[in-house]
């Protein structure tokens, strides 16, 4: 009899094994299991979103009650969350779909959420510049090679490089298509092998960190 933590381990083992079999044997009854599992994944993902929303609201509500540092920002977050939900419900009732152009929800999305996202991502430019400065310092041969390559690629991406010599953009494309692509594929292969290893550890019950 499977009890306690054995239940999620058994579910992980059976589900992972069936999906692997369905990948290599795309015939009934395994052929349709991938589609069924994707439906179940959508259902489970919906419930996890509800849990995430509940956790977010609890966290900021407790922060406001205890008046922790920057608790005023939690009030802004809760107000924005409730406003978006209310406007989304009203837009759904009025238009039948909150994502239609002209609805109040899409108006808020286009004029509030997207500008806020752009602002957040624009802040990354400063962090990228700082990281690039630290990475491109010519402290040794490898760093010097990286610096020279970065300068060539950046210079080859601007129009003035083609005015100086048509070979500069061609050389830049060669760097991106051959040396850069070789390193990129090596990294992707490493990520794939790591993902396979972790997946097998989860299926076999060796990796149990998700149970904590």
Structure write-up:
- The protein is an all-alpha fold and 212 residues long.
- It has helices spanning 6-24, 33-66, 71-95, 104-135, 141-156, 159-164, 167-177, 179-203.
- It is extended and about 60 Å long.
- The chain starts with 5 loop residues before the first helix and ends in a 9-residue tail after the last helix.
Task: List its traits.
212 residues; mainly alpha
Q: Quick summary of this structure?
A:
The chain is an all-alpha fold and 212 residues long.
* Poorly predicted spans: none
Strand count, sense and barrel status of the largest sheet are: none
End-to-end CA span: 22 Å
| Mean pLDDT rating | 86
Topology pattern, helix = H, strand = E: HHHHHHHH
Strand content: under 5%
Number of helices: 8
In total, the number of strands is: 0
Specify Rg, calculated over alpha carbons. Answer: 26 Å
**So what's the overall shape?**
extended
The share of residues in helices is: over 70%
Helices and strands: which structural class?
mainly alpha
Topology:
Layout: H1 6-24, H2 33-66, H3 71-95, H4 104-135, H5 141-156, H6 159-164, H7 167-177, H8 179-203
